Amino acid sequence: xxxxxxxxxxxxxxxxxxxxxxxxxxxxxxxxxxxxxxxxxxxxxxxxxxxxxxxxxxxxxxxxxxxxxxxxxxxxxxxxxxxxxxxxxxxxxxxxxxxxxxxxxxxxxxxxxxxxxxxxxxxxxxxxxxx
Length: 131
Prior knowledge:
Elements: E1 4-8, E2 15-19, E3 24-27, H1 42-65, E4 69-81, E5 86-97, H2 101-111, H3 115-121
Antiparallel strand pairs: 1-2, 2-3, 4-5
């Protein structure tokens, strides 16, 4: 995977995120938390990763099958349940086009196979080095 970097200066809490291919994204916190709401907050970025990976994976599959689907919409809700020590993503997928029930079931399976879904549902290890 290509490296993604994040940089913050003295502007609370505006963060510039940059990909290895020089794409730039701004993340921030809402005003009620001291930010200026200039971009998605970190939790929204995580949910956005799942949403975008889902629709891209579905579009790739639909195109390969040559199904007549005009649009795919995904909504992600994210909650942390501290009592159960679990994070819960609720994903709602809308497929606009000509798909039957068998195809819908297959699309649900494909959605659950997107790389970000797989990452979030398997063990994750984070290695940190401070330099």
